[in-house]
Amino acid sequence: MNLKNINLLVTEHCTLACAGCSTGAPFAKKISHSAESFCKWLDILQNKEIPFTSIALTGGEPFLHPEVRDGGFIQLLKTRYPSKWVQLTTNFSWASEERVIGYAPVVGMLDGLGISIYESVVQKLGGLDEFHRLTMLLKDMCPNTKVTLYDKRHFVAWEFHEAKREVKGPCITSDCFILKPDGKLSHCSLAIGAQNIPAYNVILEKSQEALFDLSKLNEKEELLSWQQKYPFDLCFNCTMWEHIRVPWYSLRPQSEAEMLEGKLRLLLARAAALRDLHAIEASQRS
After folding, report:
1. How far apart are CA 43 and CA 46, in angstroms?
2. How confident is the model over 222-236, as pLDDT tens digits?
3. Are 177 and 270 in contact (CB under 8 A)?
């Protein structure tokens, strides 16, 4: 576990409403944060010689941010932190041939671009062939940017519970360090998501380890010690470590049937995960 990558929460809202969104974007207000608002904290990390090597723009959907679309956000980061790898992850819902051509100069400033493949976006763009044609067009126009596609047909379901429970395995998001413009650095993306979900606010407020306030950073070792801890206190109130994979569905379904189908998928996935966990525990006892 390390601090190689610092994620900037540049936009809190999104064009999609993915169930299981770890940053709680479906519940977030329409808020974007300026590039300058992050620089103070990135400067502190750099001056304290914290060994991060990349800066990632995340959300929400970063291309909802006007400074991202016009390239100003990325240009500032590339100029101010020239030794850092600058990357961005998008759901590609904005894509069309005209926009790909228009945004290519912006994407071309990036070192890396991650494109998540969501079925709803694929359908919106006219099918998988058109989706891949547009991604190939973007790759051809931005040869110096590493473009990576991520299959998002499934997500890892999670929830918080008030009672603390034993953590029995690693977590895929425990080193997803997300920086907010107030200088709070999250130990995992769920600490950001919980801020957008009122039912989880009380649980998050009790945590002393989910967020690190960079305004109070004195010695480099304080932050390095914090980021190495796992499980930390919020983990005992969370199910993410169970890695329950569920087929993707939206929290903004078009019909009641789709809503029920999504809930059924989640229940079946949880039942299967619990069955597997009990089988593993039984084999370990025998």
Report:
1. 5
2. 999 999 999 999 999
3. no
